[in-house]
Design goal:
The chain has 13 helices and 14 strands. The structure holds pyridoxal-5'-phosphate (PLP). Pyridoxal-5'-phosphate (PLP) binds next to α3.
């Protein structure tokens, strides 16, 4: 490999690029996690995350990857043999249902073709049939990171309500929180699962549950074994800004900074930025003449784009060519779509020119890999971002001002 100079382009859909401000914040001495200085930090991050989840309820922070927070959501609320309804949106939904089965839950996994979001209508119909209320929870991945498809969480909530069903509603927002609009309280979500290394712009290592009053109540009856993940152990120390065991102190410094950055930009502006960069990416893909994995424009993910390789071309060989020539990492195809798709991450600490560098690397890589395409994607993205197309100008300064 040639010696890399300048910044590596980390364009996988998580872990994402960590902004310099966050790196500087983490680069400080570790402090006593039972001392007064820590207490202020603990309060700041626990309160700050409520604003990000849009909840007034309880939030817990684990020193764990997102998978730990998946497990925490289930073991705190359910009992052995409980039935849960999950939707096969892609690789991450498949992993969550496998974890649920390993814990001794009875999973009904609604099959999907990995090109669409969770089917709210079918979920509602299944719940309406379940007159005995055997189904205890509905679990949905908001943004399926393996496919670039975003499910309509509010529609699933409506479907649960329409069926007058008491099941808990759990949502994985690991690759959507702080990138796509998300409202824990307003959408009546009982447990939201999140991780640090995607929209939150941190290194991997933290994960989160946002918890409704109904989920806390379910915890009193839940009989799945739990120890490390027990919300109850967090509740009392968290009230005074502390943790029941050693927290990931330096990642919490970073989290405090990341929350400050998100709130300074404004969550609506953060979502609009992701929408703009997502749209520019999709226009590039279409101009190259390649196919998006997501089939429904209403479900396009604004945090990543999964692109189908023309048949006969290996997506992983293409990604390797991009890495070797341009020092850029693109996301690999996972599970069923391994070798068939590559993924462009456009979430987190990311902007227009980083996207244009990314798309240039993809376009040059397509050429080097001999993949048939039109050399028009970068230009299409620029046309969009520069406002050269009617109605696409970025809010703010324009040349006419
Ligand atoms: C990344 C991701 C996960 C897995 O999180 P880890 O931190 O790797 O355990 C789960 N769900 C979704 C939607 C993800 O994007």
């Amino acid at each position: 490999m040639p010696t890399a100079t300048g910044r590596h382009f980390l364009q996988i859909p998580g872990p994402t690029n960590v902004p310099d401000r966050v790196l500087r914040a983490i680069d400080r001495p570790t402090i006593d996690h039972r001392g007064p200085e820590f207490q202020a930090l603990g309060h700041a991050v626990l309160d700050g995350m409520k604003a990000i989840f849009k909840t007034k309820g309880m939030v817990v922070i684990y020193p764990a990857s997102g998978t730990g927070a998946w497990e925490a959501a289930l073991v705190n609320t359910l009992s052995p043999g409980d039935r849960v309804l999950m939707a096969e949106t892609g690789h991450f939904a498949t992993l969550w249902q496998r974890l649920a089965k390993r814990l001794g839950l009875e999973v009904e996994f609604m099959s999907g073709d990995w090109r669409r979001g969770a089917p709210a209508g079918a979920i509602g119909a299944r719940l309406a049939e379940d007159k005995a209320h055997a189904i205890k929870a509905v679990c949905v991945v908001h943004n399926e990171t393996s496919t670039g498809v975003a499910s309509n969480v509010a529609a699933v909530r409506k479907a649960i309500d329409g069926a007058h069903h008491p099941a808990l509603f759990m949502v994985d927002t690991i690759s959507s929180l702080a990138s796509l609009d998300y409202r824990h309280d307003e959408w009546g979500v009982d447990v939201t699962v999140a991780g640090s290394q995607k929209g939150l712009m941190l290194p991997p290592g933290l994960s989160f549950n946002a918890i409704s009053a109904k989920a806390l109540k379910a915890q009193e009856q839940a009989k799945l074994p739990r120890a490390y993940w027990d919300w109850a152990d967090m509740a009392t120390p968290n009230k005074s800004g502390f943790f029941p065991y050693t927290p990931a102190t330096n990642l919490l410094y970073g989290l405090k900074e990341a929350i400050a950055m998100l709130l300074e930009e404004g969550l609506d502006a953060v979502f609009a930025r992701h929408a703009r960069l997502g749209e520019a990416t999709r226009r590039a893909v279409q101009a190259w003449g390649l196919e998006l994995l997501c089939v429904d424009p209403a479900e396009y993910s604004n945090s990543l784009t999964a692109v189908l390789m023309p048949s006969g071309f290996d997506a992983d060989r293409f990604r390797q060519i991009v890495l070797e020539n341009f020092d850029m990492s693109l996301g690999q195809g996972l599970g069923k779509v391994s070798g068939k798709v590559f993924r462009i991450g456009h979430l987190g600490g990311f902007n227009e020119l980083m996207l244009m560098g990314t798309l240039s690397g993809v376009e040059m890589g397509l050429h080097l890999a001999g993949v048939p395409h039109r050399q028009a994607g970068v230009a299409a993205a620029m046309d969009f971002l520069a406002g050269r197309i009617e109605g696409t100008a970025k809010a703010g300064k324009s040349a006419a001002e």
